[in-house]
Amino acid sequence: MTGATRSGKIAGEMRQVASGLRPKPVSRRRSSREGIMANKSQGTWYVSFELPQGKRAYARATETFLIEREAKKFARAKLVDTPKVSAGTLNPHLPKRTITPVQMIEWLEEPDKADLACAGRLTIPCPDAPKDRA
Among 23, 47, 57, 84, which is 20 to 30 Å from 106 by CA? Predict the structure, then answer.
């Protein structure tokens, strides 16, 4: 910026202040959805599936789930409607898993952690096991 341009800019700013006109602070427009995503627990698993063709040629929707068993149940139901179903874990969950439509049947057949717990292979409690009543 040259000296003449800088002094012109400063003079313009001084005229605004002298005339009582001050630049307004930039206000950020707030979205109606702002804050919803931060407060909502999204779970660990997602299942994404293709929607029937409507206005858009390739529309997809995604549902989130807390546990793998719920995600598998939902994915099985969606496979009846469309073969293009994918799933996986959401960040920051580790280890990261991505199940493509080609891998979907294989994933649905493999046991999840709750199934392994019921079979005695893991030390986490089995959700379907009867509780001891004393």
Answer: 57
Q: How far apart are CA 22 and CA 13, in angstroms?
A: 9
Q: pLDDT tens, position by position, for the chain (134 residues)?
A: 555 555 566 656 555 555 566 656 655 666 555 555 554 556 799 999 998 887 777 889 999 999 999 999 999 999 998 999 999 999 888 889 999 999 999 999 998 776 666 766 655 555 555 555 44
pTM above 0.70, yes or no: no
List the domain boundaries for the chain.
36-118
Q: Cis omega (within 30 of 0) on the bond before 92? A: yes
